Amino acid sequence: MEPIHELTDLTPGRLPDGLLAAAQPVVLRGLVSHWPAVQASRRSDRSAVDYLRQCWRGEPVAIMTGAPEIDGRFFYNDDFSGFNFGREDAPLPAVMEALLELREQPRPPCFYVGSTTVDTCLPGFRAHNDLDVGDPDPLVSVWLGNRSRIAPHYDLPDNIACVMAGHRRFTLFPPEQLPNLYVGPIDFTPAGQPVSLVDLKQPDFERFPRFAEALANGLQAELGPGDAVYIPSMWWHQVEALDAFNVLINYWWRQSPAHMDSPVAALMLALLTMRDLPPAQRRAWQGLFDHYVFQADASTVAHIPPQARHALAPLTADGADHLRAHLLKRLQR
């Protein structure tokens, strides 16, 4: 496994030119080292907790809880009928105080607050701790807990993950490694995204032999407070929180208009309508998708008058609404 490419000597808070269009991940050392929240965390865990408490305004957070035996791996249960953790709501200060109290235990229970919107949970945090990613309205989330291992998964948006407190290890795989990651169900998942079934801490190469190829193409880096990593859309990534108290702030944005729906909808519809067709018909539909979607260019519709292209015209907000209504009508038949 190779290290993720790193950029150092950055101006804190300033993204390198061209980063947001990059197709490869990049570690950004010290990118948010100027944040007051990072500086508080460098003093102590208690200082970090006190800083976040000042930003909290009473909104409860959703917390995932697991027994010590899961070793921080929030995952399925043994027979895949459910999961190895529970869920509950709790005040954020109470969660953080519990984490501080558990720091000295060799095998504590596992606590994980994941993907919680900063502006809802910690209003005011971004007034002094923020990053300009160029998007007019990025989704900014906080992730908080003790030691955890979140299985390899992909996200549709591009992502900059910023370590506020503790240390995190990121293990990344390019999108083409999908066949070697042994991904589980796509509609029954621990936290919304399909995940690899391989335990990276102790891979079972007899059960998952192709995972060796994924490891050979993987990238890895460990980040501390003030560091960040850019993860392009669709890259698979495992995130490990390595300390007894960890906080991550991440920025998500899409390089597409807001009127575009998630491609996951197309995948689900393809499973519903095409996967079980005879092989010859699947090949024919593959050709149609290549022609109209994956290899489409100006020549695809050049023979059709512009005013008559309808769904084949460049997608606009009105066009997206029309397509959505047409699709819903067909699904209701």
From TrEMBL:
Cross-referenced SMART domains: JmjC
InterPro entries reported in the protein's UniProt record: Cupin_8, JmjC_dom
Domain JmjC stretches: 111-268
Membrane spanning residue stretches: none
PANTHER family referenced in this protein's UniProt entry, alphabetically: HYPOXIA-INDUCIBLE FACTOR 1 ALPHA INHIBITOR-RELATED, HYPOXIA-INDUCIBLE FACTOR 1-ALPHA INHIBITOR
Protein name: Cupin
Organism listed in the record: Roseateles aquatilis
